[in-house]
Design brief:
The protein is mostly helical and 701 residues long. Its cofactor is Zn(2+).
């Protein structure tokens, strides 16, 4: 139940609020009393491993008592005593879950991994005990059929609650409900296992270089970072490159040593596919089978149909229609880029055929030849602190909000930073944590989450506590962190999610979350400002001289910005199609070879052999981990929206147009899902979006 037990799964955007538990609490457990920290943020410095399990168990017990109180209420069911009471239940469970799963993503350890496995079946049972409570559903149904006088937000909460229970199996017979419980528990554990295996596989690989000549072509900052990694591993004098993106991607782009590029490339694309204890192939097969069985139990022919019913797309056909529209021009563009790559190989008087480990290296050379731009020329102007200030600058120009660094807050990790966000009238909007660098205890990628979501308590607004977590290139000791253009873009993206969390203003948890294929609109539109010349002139300053990035370099960035979109779009679309193809299956054979399925389903579409799916099956955590199941297409679906939405600013001649920004905040960022997603967009834009701005933005038109 997405708003009854949000904390049961760690997804991209978490939610929670702090409140005092009702039972007598053992002394010393910070979850069992009100936080006394500034802004009532979690007291990370006081939370110990032994605090989690008692708080989880007590949280589930308290919520069950709250459910019993609703069910046993002798008064007729009303919105307040049933729907609102259910929505507000589980305060302690929400409180501990948001901290535990937030930290498990950003700073896990073996104990946390073990506890999450222990908790998984307990939480699955607890969630099902609520979702399949016959008397509770009877009260919900009574209100649904006789709602009384409700405002718009209350009507939406009632609608979502009823729908959640139906989709949670409330209308199934007893035998089917028993089977559903078993499937939910199995799915939860398999998703957890998949993610843990993927992280262990990523951390296990090391490319150890002990000859300086093997570093040829690599930028100095990457070499220094690899030396630092080796030193931390007790191998001073060597260099260690890892499968974390800030290490592996620039290595593939710049390393002259082709054999080493091949080695790290194969290490990257074979994660979870090595026949060891962390192999994910059988995990995936079992997961697909369990999901399909659940969908059929709920009356759907495949899992995608079940999942998409709650999203903007509604049907698999609508998703395929969009992806197929973009696939043809993308493949054409990728073939043009492959021709450029082959031309560069010939310049080296080499006779080999380009492989996956050659693409980034020779595409970078082709880009330099075409546009006279080396991406390493840009890095000195993208000092992390300056990019962060650029992100804050754009938010201030658009919405008038400010960010002030705080030194008196407990931090989720010593590397993290804390900021207070204030609205344009000076009122407190929330707290923002930022945590930038990779570590073995942190999962890969970048995300935005919450340690407390915005809500209301006793009629008073409770401000959110938001976190942005990234995996940027860590600098060597004493050196500044210089970002790549892609990393700078990522920071703008995740900050867009943060703004969505900070601006949200709803009274109920059940109307806080927008559909999965809408949630990337606030993040992706923020990327559009990242490299606008007006914005670059503010934050892109040389880390040594303070010189503003030269206009000529900005012009080169602009001209070259769309180069490489054939590769980037093809690898993304391949992953989106793979995700969909798995989840439209109507049968999962017991002997299914998932890697063979991947090869065949992408091969029949003509994907170039040099371009692997952005996420191959055995490390595709977006879908196999549960956050974007039958939903990885959401990024491109939302990109149709964000490219069209950005046109609204450009049409005025002012990318910081206050009227447009005000409408975007009001209709997109503030109201959760009180309105349907397309209605929200039309309320902002005045029309439905078209696909042309996306094709133009990606250079595919």
């Amino acid at each position: 139940m997405k708003h009854i037990l949000l904390a049961a799964c760690a997804v991209a955007i978490l939610s929670g609020c702090g409140s005092q538990g009702k039972q007598a609490a053992p002394t010393g457990n910070p979850f069992l009393s009100e936080y006394t920290t500034p802004f009532q943020v979690p007291p990370f410095d006081q939370i110990k491993m032994e605090h989690y399990k008692p708080a989880f168990l007590q949280g589930m017990e308290e919520q069950q008592k709250e459910i019993d109180a609703i069910v046993n209420n002798p008064e007729p069911a009303t919105f307040q005593n049933t729907i609102a009471a259910l929505d507000q239940s589980g305060t302690l469970l929400r409180k501990v879950s948001t901290v535990f799963y937030g930290l498990k993503s950003a700073n896990t350890n073996d104990e946390m991994d073990a506890l999450s496995r222990e908790l998984s079946p307990l939480q699955s049972k607890h969630s099902d005990d609520i979702a399949l409570n016959e008397k509770l559903f009877a009260r919900i149904k009574a209100v649904y059929e006789n709602p009384g006088n409700l405002d718009k937000e209350q009507k939406k909460l009632l609608e979502e609650t009823y729908k959640d229970f139906v989709r949670g199996g409330a209308n199934l017979d007893a035998e089917s409900q028993k089977k559903l419980r078993e499937l939910n528990s199995e799915i939860s554990m398999l998703q957890l296992t998949f993610g843990q295996n993927m992280q262990k596989e990523t951390n296990a690989f090391q490319l150890i270089v002990d000859k300086e000549e093997d570093l040829a072509g690599l930028p100095q900052n990457l070499i220094a970072s690899a030396a630092e990694t080796a030193k931390e591993a007790g191998m001073e004098g060597k260099w260690i490159f890892t499968l974390h993106n800030p290490s592996v991607m620039p290595f593939l782009q710049y390393a002259d040593n082709r054999d080493l590029r091949e080695k790290i490339f194969k290490g990257y694309i074979n994660r979870g596919n090595n026949g060891n204890e962390y192999d994910n192939k059988e995990v995936v097969r079992k997961l697909l089978k369990a999901r399909l069985e659940k969908a059929k139990l709920m009356g759907y022919e495949n899992y995608a149909s079940f999942a998409l019913e709650e999203r903007m797309a509604k049907t698999p056909d609508a998703v395929y229609k969009l992806l197929d529209q973009i696939w043809t021009p993308t493949l054409s563009k990728a073939k043009e880029e492959l021709a450029d790559i082959n031309a560069e190989i010939k310049k080296d008087r080499k006779t080999f055929t380009a492989e996956g480990w050659d693409w980034r290296y020779y595409a970078d050379r082709a880009k330099k030849a075409k546009f006279d731009l080396d991406e390493n020329q840009v890095r000195p102007y993208l000092k992390l602190e300056n990019v962060r200030n650029g992100v804050f600058y754009v938010a201030n120009k658009l919405y008038g909000i400010t960010f002030t660094q705080l030194d008196n807050l407990p931090l989720p990790h010593p590397d993290a930073q804390a900021f207070e966000c204030k609205d344009k009238d000076g009122s407190h909007l929330g707290v923002l944590y930022m945590d930038f660098f990779p570590r073995a205890s942190k999962k890969g990628g970048a995300w935005c989450g919450s340690y407390r979501s915005q809500t209301y308590k006793d009629g008073k607004k409770v401000a959110p506590v938001v976190t942005v977590v990234c995996n940027f290139t860590k600098p060597a000791a004493g050196q500044p962190a210089l970002l790549s253009a892609d990393e700078a873009n990522t920071l703008f993206h995740e900050f867009g999610h943060a703004l969505h969390n900070l601006f949200k203003d709803v009274h109920y948890y059940g109307v806080a979350s927008v559909p999965r294929d809408f949630v990337e609109l606030p993040s992706q539109i923020d990327e559009h400002w990242a490299f606008e010349p007006e914005v670059l002139n503010v934050y892109a300053k040389h880390y040594q001289t303070g010189e503003v990035i030269p206009a000529g370099l900005v012009e080169k960035m602009d001209k070259s910005g769309k180069y490489g979109q054939g590769f980037a779009t093809a690898e993304y679309l391949a992953a989106s199609l793979l995700d969909m193809d798995y989840h439209v299956l109507k049968e999962i054979p017991d002997d299914m070879d998932v890697m063979q399925f991947e090869t065949e389903t992408l091969g029949k579409r003509g994907l170039l052999k040099q371009i692997p799916s952005r996420y191959r099956t055995t490390y595709f955590n977006h879908t196999m981990g549960g956050g974007y199941t039958a939903g990885y297409y959401s990024y491109i679906w939302a990109e149709v929206l964000d490219c069209d939405a950005y046109e609204a600013y450009k049409e005025t001649g002012d990318i910081f147009n206050q009227e447009v920004a005000g409408k975007f905040r009001k209709y997109i960022l503030t109201s959760g899902c009180i309105d349907d997603a397309m209605d929200m967009y039309v309320n902002f834009r005045g029309k439905e979006p078209g696909i042309d701005p996306l094709l133009k933005n990606r250079g595919l038109k």
